[in-house]
Amino acid sequence: MKDQNLMYDGTFDGFLSAVFYVFEHQLKAVTIQNEFVMQQGLFSEVEKVITDEAKATRVWKGIKSKLSSHGSYQLYYAFLSEQSGVEALLLDYIKYAFSKGTPVDKDYAHPSVLKIAQIAKSVGREKHRMEAFVRFRLTKDDVYFANIEPDFNVLPLIEKHFKRRYADQKWVIYDINRAYGLFYDLEKVEIVHMDFPANFDFSKTDDEFFAIQEFEFQKLWQDYFKATNIASRKNMKLHIRHVPKRYWKYLSEKQPN
Amino acid sequence: MSFQRTQEKLKILADAAKYDVSCSSSGSKRANTNKGLGDATGMGICHSYTEDGRCVSLLKILLTNHCIFDCAYCVTRKSNDIKRAAFKVQEVVDLTINFYRRNYIEGLFLSSGIFKSADFTMERLVAVAKKLRLEENFNGYIHLKSIPGASDELMREAGLYADRLSVNIEIPTEAGLKKLAPDKKREDFIKPMVKVKNEIIQYKEEKKIIKSTPKFAPAGQSTQMIIGASGENDFQIMQTSNFFYKTYNLKRVYYSGYVPISYDHRLPQIGSAVPMLRENRLYQTDWLMRFYGFEVSEILNEQHQHLDLDVDPKLGWALRNLHEFPVDVNTADKHMLARIPGLGMKSVYKILNARRFRKLNWEHLKKIGVALNRAQYFMVCESNQFEKRDLTSEKIKGLILQNSKSKYQKTLSNQLNLFG
Ligand code: SF4
Question: How many CA atoms lie less than 13 Å away from A202 in the CB half-sphere?
Answer without folding.
Answer: 18
